[in-house]
Design a protein that fits this description.
two-stranded antiparallel ribbon; alpha/beta; 9 strands; globular; 24% helix; 6 helices
Length: 190
């Protein structure tokens, strides 16, 4: 007979800047036709990862963020980074949304994968899960090539994120130095 789990064993370890990012292995749209290719944190070893949680597919605000990052994927990739979107929707919902045209509130032509956190476990590890609704807040995280969480910002559901600010922070992190308030690429470090 197995002993009951202790409170310590049941405790969720939350993501913290400066610590290893929580590992994951999630169903994804990496293979949009079969939906049989999972995405893992280890897939991004050696690259910067912009990990972007969003509440739900087929909503009014989410496609504006998802497509804004997608439309700038060449710039993001040029900085040695990739993007992964995550919600608590199924990969089947993700695929339907990706196959829906943008003029119909879809995200057709998406240039990065979406992952499915149906049970909300990864969202909980990032401390952004709204448990009653099983949806994530708008959490954006930057993970360095060694898998260490370097940046964390969480927005209310009704506020979209800025690609420009995300890229500014990514480039500041890549300098490895101290960057003053309102630092922009090309500025000197302190």
């Amino acid at each position: 007979m197995t002993a009951p789990a202790t409170a310590t064993e049941n405790a969720v370890t939350f993501a913290k800047v400066g610590q290893p990012a929580p590992d994951f292995d999630l169903p994804s749209t990496k293979n949009i036709e079969t939906l049989k290719e999972n995405v893992r944190l280890s897939d991004y070893t050696g690259k910067w990862l912009i990990l972007m949680f969003y509440p739900l597919d087929f909503t009014a605000l989410c496609p504006t963020e998802i497509t804004a990052f997608s439309d700038r994927i060449d710039e993001i990739n040029g900085l040695g980074a990739e993007v992964l979107g995550i919600s608590t929707d199924s990969v089947h919902s993700h695929r339907a949304w990706i196959k829906t045209s943008r003029d119909q509130n879809g995200i057709e032509g998406l240039n990065y994968p979406l992952a499915s956190d149906v049970a909300g476990r990864l969202s909980a590890k990032y401390n952004i899960l709204i448990e009653e609704a099983n949806i994530a807040l708008r959490g954006l995280y930057i993970i360095n090539p060694e898998g260490i969480l370097q940046y964390s910002v969480v927005h209310a559901i009704n506020i979209g994120r800025s690609v420009d600010e995300t890229l500014r922070v990514l480039q500041a992190l890549q300098t490895g130095g101290f960057c003053r308030a309102d630092w922009t690429p090309g500025d000197e470090n302190l």
